[in-house]
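Methods — Computational structure assignment.
A single polypeptide chain was analysed. Its primary sequence is given first, followed by the predicted tertiary structure written as C-alpha coordinates.
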Amino acid sequence: MTTPAAPPRRAPLLIVANALRGALIGTAELLPGISGGTIALITGVYERLIDSAAAVVSAVKALLWGPGRLAGFRAEIRRVDGWLIVPLLVGMATIVLTLAGPIEGLVAAYPEESRGLFFGLVAASIAVPIGLVPRVLRSRSSRAAGLLVFLAAAAGAFLLVGLAGGGASVDPPPLWFVFVAAAIAVCALVVPGVSGSFFLLAVGLYSPTLVAVDERDLGYIAVFAAGALLGLVTIVRVMKWLLDAYRRLTLLAMAGLMLGSLRALWPWQVGESGESSATGVPVAPFEPVLAPILFAVLGAGVVVALILVERAYARRLSEAVQIPAP
Protein backbone atom coordinates (compact mmCIF):
# COMPACT_ATOMS: atom_id res chain seq x y z
CA MET A 1 0.00 0.00 0.00
CA THR A 2 1.22 3.51 -0.72
CA THR A 3 0.40 6.87 0.74
CA PRO A 4 0.68 10.20 -1.07
CA ALA A 5 3.28 12.72 -0.03
CA ALA A 6 3.22 16.37 -0.94
CA PRO A 7 5.75 17.30 -3.66
CA PRO A 8 8.60 19.64 -2.68
CA ARG A 9 6.95 22.71 -4.17
CA ARG A 10 9.24 25.15 -2.38
CA ALA A 11 12.43 23.61 -3.70
CA PRO A 12 14.78 26.34 -5.00
CA LEU A 13 15.15 24.51 -8.31
CA LEU A 14 11.39 24.57 -8.86
CA ILE A 15 11.22 28.29 -8.06
CA VAL A 16 13.95 28.96 -10.61
CA ALA A 17 12.12 26.78 -13.16
CA ASN A 18 8.91 28.77 -12.65
CA ALA A 19 10.83 32.05 -13.04
CA LEU A 20 12.23 30.72 -16.33
CA ARG A 21 8.71 29.80 -17.43
CA GLY A 22 7.70 33.37 -16.68
CA ALA A 23 10.65 34.69 -18.69
CA LEU A 24 9.57 32.58 -21.68
CA ILE A 25 5.96 33.78 -21.39
CA GLY A 26 7.14 37.40 -21.07
CA THR A 27 9.30 37.01 -24.17
CA ALA A 28 6.31 35.62 -26.09
CA GLU A 29 4.20 38.59 -25.03
CA LEU A 30 6.74 40.92 -26.66
CA LEU A 31 6.78 39.08 -29.97
CA PRO A 32 4.15 39.62 -32.69
CA GLY A 33 2.40 36.40 -33.66
CA ILE A 34 3.24 34.22 -30.66
CA SER A 35 0.98 33.85 -27.64
CA GLY A 36 2.00 33.77 -24.01
CA GLY A 37 -0.81 31.26 -23.51
CA THR A 38 0.90 28.98 -26.02
CA ILE A 39 4.14 29.05 -24.00
CA ALA A 40 2.18 28.40 -20.79
CA LEU A 41 0.69 25.32 -22.47
CA ILE A 42 4.09 24.08 -23.67
CA THR A 43 5.68 24.48 -20.24
CA GLY A 44 2.84 22.66 -18.49
CA VAL A 45 1.47 25.48 -16.32
CA TYR A 46 -1.53 26.68 -18.32
CA GLU A 47 -4.36 25.21 -16.27
CA ARG A 48 -2.62 25.97 -12.97
CA LEU A 49 -2.34 29.59 -14.09
CA ILE A 50 -6.02 29.72 -15.01
CA ASP A 51 -7.04 28.21 -11.68
CA SER A 52 -4.84 30.60 -9.68
CA ALA A 53 -5.97 33.64 -11.65
CA ALA A 54 -9.61 32.64 -11.16
CA ALA A 55 -8.94 32.29 -7.41
CA VAL A 56 -7.46 35.81 -7.29
CA VAL A 57 -10.53 37.19 -9.07
CA SER A 58 -12.84 35.37 -6.63
CA ALA A 59 -10.80 36.63 -3.65
CA VAL A 60 -11.09 40.25 -4.78
CA LYS A 61 -14.81 39.78 -5.43
CA ALA A 62 -15.30 38.32 -1.93
CA LEU A 63 -13.34 41.18 -0.37
CA LEU A 64 -15.43 43.81 -2.13
CA TRP A 65 -18.90 42.30 -1.95
CA GLY A 66 -18.77 39.41 0.50
CA PRO A 67 -20.19 37.30 1.95
CA GLY A 68 -17.81 37.30 4.93
CA ARG A 69 -15.40 39.64 3.23
CA LEU A 70 -12.12 38.90 5.03
CA ALA A 71 -12.91 35.24 5.63
CA GLY A 72 -14.02 34.79 2.03
CA PHE A 73 -10.92 36.57 0.77
CA ARG A 74 -8.61 34.34 2.84
CA ALA A 75 -10.40 31.19 1.74
CA GLU A 76 -10.06 32.09 -1.96
CA ILE A 77 -6.51 33.40 -1.76
CA ARG A 78 -5.36 30.08 -0.25
CA ARG A 79 -6.24 28.45 -3.56
CA VAL A 80 -3.64 30.57 -5.36
CA ASP A 81 -0.47 28.63 -6.20
CA GLY A 82 1.91 31.29 -4.92
CA TRP A 83 5.01 29.17 -5.52
CA LEU A 84 4.10 29.20 -9.19
CA ILE A 85 2.58 32.67 -9.59
CA VAL A 86 5.16 34.82 -7.78
CA PRO A 87 8.32 33.46 -9.50
CA LEU A 88 6.49 33.42 -12.83
CA LEU A 89 5.45 37.08 -12.52
CA VAL A 90 8.99 38.03 -11.51
CA GLY A 91 10.38 36.27 -14.59
CA MET A 92 7.81 37.95 -16.86
CA ALA A 93 8.39 41.42 -15.44
CA THR A 94 12.16 41.08 -15.68
CA ILE A 95 12.03 40.17 -19.36
CA VAL A 96 9.42 42.80 -20.30
CA LEU A 97 11.23 45.63 -18.50
CA THR A 98 14.69 44.76 -19.82
CA LEU A 99 14.10 43.43 -23.34
CA ALA A 100 11.19 45.51 -24.69
CA GLY A 101 13.47 47.87 -26.64
CA PRO A 102 16.02 45.30 -27.93
CA ILE A 103 13.32 42.86 -29.07
CA GLU A 104 11.52 45.55 -31.07
CA GLY A 105 14.82 46.34 -32.80
CA LEU A 106 15.60 42.68 -33.57
CA VAL A 107 12.14 41.98 -35.00
CA ALA A 108 12.40 45.08 -37.21
CA ALA A 109 15.97 44.32 -38.33
CA TYR A 110 15.51 40.60 -39.04
CA PRO A 111 11.83 40.08 -39.92
CA GLU A 112 12.18 36.86 -41.93
CA GLU A 113 14.48 35.16 -39.43
CA SER A 114 12.30 36.25 -36.49
CA ARG A 115 9.11 34.99 -38.07
CA GLY A 116 10.82 31.74 -39.05
CA LEU A 117 11.73 31.10 -35.41
CA PHE A 118 8.22 31.92 -34.21
CA PHE A 119 6.65 29.83 -37.00
CA GLY A 120 8.55 26.77 -35.82
CA LEU A 121 7.68 27.44 -32.18
CA VAL A 122 3.93 27.75 -32.78
CA ALA A 123 3.68 24.98 -35.42
CA ALA A 124 5.23 22.43 -33.06
CA SER A 125 3.14 23.75 -30.17
CA ILE A 126 -0.13 22.71 -31.83
CA ALA A 127 0.62 19.20 -30.56
CA VAL A 128 0.29 20.40 -26.94
CA PRO A 129 -3.47 21.13 -26.71
CA ILE A 130 -4.21 18.17 -28.98
CA GLY A 131 -2.23 15.97 -26.61
CA LEU A 132 -4.36 17.20 -23.70
CA VAL A 133 -7.66 16.27 -25.38
CA PRO A 134 -9.33 13.50 -23.30
CA ARG A 135 -8.87 10.12 -24.96
CA VAL A 136 -12.32 8.57 -24.71
CA LEU A 137 -14.48 6.74 -27.24
CA ARG A 138 -16.96 9.10 -28.85
CA SER A 139 -19.71 8.89 -31.44
CA ARG A 140 -19.14 9.82 -35.05
CA SER A 141 -21.21 12.99 -34.59
CA SER A 142 -19.11 14.01 -31.57
CA ARG A 143 -15.89 13.52 -33.53
CA ALA A 144 -17.35 15.53 -36.40
CA ALA A 145 -18.27 18.35 -34.00
CA GLY A 146 -14.71 18.40 -32.65
CA LEU A 147 -13.26 18.56 -36.15
CA LEU A 148 -15.68 21.37 -37.05
CA VAL A 149 -14.66 23.40 -33.99
CA PHE A 150 -10.97 22.90 -34.82
CA LEU A 151 -11.40 23.98 -38.46
CA ALA A 152 -13.68 26.91 -37.58
CA ALA A 153 -11.18 28.24 -35.03
CA ALA A 154 -8.33 27.86 -37.53
CA ALA A 155 -10.29 29.64 -40.27
CA GLY A 156 -11.33 32.42 -37.89
CA ALA A 157 -7.76 33.05 -36.77
CA PHE A 158 -6.52 32.94 -40.38
CA LEU A 159 -9.09 35.54 -41.48
CA LEU A 160 -8.53 37.82 -38.49
CA VAL A 161 -4.78 37.81 -39.10
CA GLY A 162 -5.49 38.85 -42.68
CA LEU A 163 -7.38 41.90 -41.43
CA ALA A 164 -4.28 43.14 -39.59
CA GLY A 165 -2.54 44.08 -42.79
CA GLY A 166 0.25 46.27 -41.49
CA GLY A 167 -1.28 48.86 -39.20
CA ALA A 168 0.67 52.10 -38.97
CA SER A 169 1.81 53.23 -35.54
CA VAL A 170 -0.53 55.61 -33.72
CA ASP A 171 1.71 58.33 -32.32
CA PRO A 172 0.81 59.62 -29.83
CA PRO A 173 -2.09 57.23 -29.11
CA PRO A 174 -5.11 58.50 -27.12
CA LEU A 175 -5.17 56.94 -23.65
CA TRP A 176 -8.74 55.65 -24.00
CA PHE A 177 -7.60 53.71 -27.06
CA VAL A 178 -4.62 52.31 -25.12
CA PHE A 179 -7.00 51.15 -22.35
CA VAL A 180 -9.38 49.35 -24.74
CA ALA A 181 -6.55 47.80 -26.78
CA ALA A 182 -4.86 46.49 -23.62
CA ALA A 183 -8.09 44.87 -22.43
CA ILE A 184 -8.28 42.97 -25.74
CA ALA A 185 -4.57 42.20 -26.11
CA VAL A 186 -4.30 40.61 -22.67
CA CYS A 187 -6.39 37.72 -23.99
CA ALA A 188 -3.08 36.38 -25.31
CA LEU A 189 -2.10 35.54 -21.73
CA VAL A 190 -5.12 33.27 -21.49
CA VAL A 191 -5.98 32.05 -25.01
CA PRO A 192 -3.25 30.06 -26.79
CA GLY A 193 -2.90 31.02 -30.44
CA VAL A 194 -4.07 34.60 -29.90
CA SER A 195 -1.11 36.99 -30.02
CA GLY A 196 -1.54 40.16 -28.01
CA SER A 197 1.56 41.71 -29.58
CA PHE A 198 0.24 41.00 -33.06
CA PHE A 199 -3.05 42.66 -32.16
CA LEU A 200 -1.15 45.71 -30.90
CA LEU A 201 0.86 45.70 -34.12
CA ALA A 202 -2.33 45.58 -36.18
CA VAL A 203 -3.90 48.56 -34.38
CA GLY A 204 -0.69 50.60 -34.40
CA LEU A 205 0.20 50.32 -30.70
CA TYR A 206 3.05 47.79 -30.80
CA SER A 207 5.95 50.22 -31.14
CA PRO A 208 4.42 52.94 -28.88
CA THR A 209 3.84 50.35 -26.14
CA LEU A 210 7.36 48.90 -26.25
CA VAL A 211 8.86 52.38 -26.35
CA ALA A 212 6.73 53.39 -23.34
CA VAL A 213 7.95 50.37 -21.38
CA ASP A 214 11.57 50.92 -22.45
CA GLU A 215 11.42 54.62 -21.48
CA ARG A 216 9.39 53.98 -18.29
CA ASP A 217 6.44 56.17 -19.36
CA LEU A 218 4.48 55.58 -16.15
CA GLY A 219 1.28 57.28 -17.34
CA TYR A 220 1.02 55.12 -20.46
CA ILE A 221 2.00 51.99 -18.51
CA ALA A 222 -0.62 52.65 -15.81
CA VAL A 223 -3.44 53.06 -18.36
CA PHE A 224 -2.30 49.96 -20.25
CA ALA A 225 -2.10 47.95 -17.00
CA ALA A 226 -5.61 49.04 -15.97
CA GLY A 227 -7.05 47.93 -19.32
CA ALA A 228 -5.13 44.65 -19.17
CA LEU A 229 -6.44 43.97 -15.66
CA LEU A 230 -10.03 44.50 -16.79
CA GLY A 231 -9.57 42.15 -19.74
CA LEU A 232 -7.80 39.55 -17.62
CA VAL A 233 -10.52 39.47 -14.97
CA THR A 234 -13.14 38.88 -17.64
CA ILE A 235 -11.43 36.34 -19.88
CA VAL A 236 -9.98 34.21 -17.04
CA ARG A 237 -13.41 33.34 -15.69
CA VAL A 238 -14.67 32.55 -19.19
CA MET A 239 -11.71 30.27 -19.96
CA LYS A 240 -11.95 28.43 -16.63
CA TRP A 241 -15.65 27.76 -17.27
CA LEU A 242 -14.96 26.55 -20.80
CA LEU A 243 -12.18 24.21 -19.63
CA ASP A 244 -14.38 22.81 -16.88
CA ALA A 245 -17.58 22.45 -18.93
CA TYR A 246 -16.29 21.84 -22.48
CA ARG A 247 -12.70 20.71 -22.05
CA ARG A 248 -12.39 18.69 -25.26
CA LEU A 249 -13.91 21.30 -27.56
CA THR A 250 -12.01 24.12 -25.86
CA LEU A 251 -8.66 22.39 -26.34
CA LEU A 252 -9.48 21.67 -29.99
CA ALA A 253 -10.43 25.33 -30.49
CA MET A 254 -7.07 26.35 -28.96
CA ALA A 255 -5.25 24.10 -31.40
CA GLY A 256 -7.24 25.58 -34.28
CA LEU A 257 -6.44 29.14 -33.23
CA MET A 258 -2.74 28.26 -33.12
CA LEU A 259 -2.92 26.71 -36.59
CA GLY A 260 -4.70 29.74 -38.08
CA SER A 261 -2.28 32.16 -36.43
CA LEU A 262 0.58 30.66 -38.46
CA ARG A 263 -0.45 33.00 -41.28
CA ALA A 264 0.98 35.88 -39.24
CA LEU A 265 4.25 33.99 -38.79
CA TRP A 266 4.94 32.94 -42.37
CA PRO A 267 8.52 34.25 -42.76
CA TRP A 268 8.11 35.89 -46.17
CA GLN A 269 5.59 38.73 -46.21
CA VAL A 270 5.34 41.99 -48.12
CA GLY A 271 3.49 45.20 -47.37
CA GLU A 272 1.69 47.58 -49.69
CA SER A 273 5.02 48.94 -50.96
CA GLY A 274 6.09 45.45 -52.07
CA GLU A 275 8.91 45.32 -49.51
CA SER A 276 9.34 42.95 -46.56
CA SER A 277 6.92 43.91 -43.80
CA ALA A 278 6.27 43.01 -40.17
CA THR A 279 2.62 42.42 -41.11
CA GLY A 280 1.60 41.97 -44.69
CA VAL A 281 0.64 39.46 -47.36
CA PRO A 282 2.34 36.02 -47.25
CA VAL A 283 4.21 35.35 -50.48
CA ALA A 284 6.52 32.71 -51.96
CA PRO A 285 9.98 32.50 -50.31
CA PHE A 286 12.53 35.15 -51.29
CA GLU A 287 16.02 35.84 -50.00
CA PRO A 288 16.92 35.06 -47.30
CA VAL A 289 15.53 31.53 -47.62
CA LEU A 290 17.85 29.22 -45.70
CA ALA A 291 18.09 31.24 -42.47
CA PRO A 292 14.30 31.41 -41.80
CA ILE A 293 14.01 27.66 -42.45
CA LEU A 294 16.85 26.90 -40.04
CA PHE A 295 15.31 29.17 -37.41
CA ALA A 296 11.94 27.42 -37.89
CA VAL A 297 13.60 24.06 -37.30
CA LEU A 298 15.33 25.52 -34.24
CA GLY A 299 12.02 26.84 -32.89
CA ALA A 300 10.31 23.48 -33.38
CA GLY A 301 13.25 21.75 -31.72
CA VAL A 302 12.98 24.03 -28.70
CA VAL A 303 9.29 23.17 -28.29
CA VAL A 304 9.94 19.43 -28.60
CA ALA A 305 12.71 19.71 -26.00
CA LEU A 306 10.45 21.64 -23.62
CA ILE A 307 7.67 19.07 -24.02
CA LEU A 308 10.06 16.18 -23.32
CA VAL A 309 11.55 17.90 -20.27
CA GLU A 310 8.10 18.72 -18.90
CA ARG A 311 6.91 15.13 -19.37
CA ALA A 312 10.04 13.75 -17.71
CA TYR A 313 9.57 16.13 -14.77
CA ALA A 314 5.87 15.21 -14.44
CA ARG A 315 6.75 11.50 -14.51
CA ARG A 316 9.41 11.91 -11.81
CA LEU A 317 7.04 13.97 -9.68
CA SER A 318 4.32 11.32 -10.07
CA GLU A 319 6.74 8.65 -8.90
CA ALA A 320 7.99 10.81 -6.01
CA VAL A 321 4.55 11.42 -4.48
CA GLN A 322 4.07 7.69 -3.90
CA ILE A 323 6.14 6.37 -1.01
CA PRO A 324 5.93 2.97 0.70
CA ALA A 325 3.77 2.92 3.79
CA PRO A 326 5.69 2.15 7.03
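Note: The CA atoms of residues 192 and 254 lie 6 Å apart.
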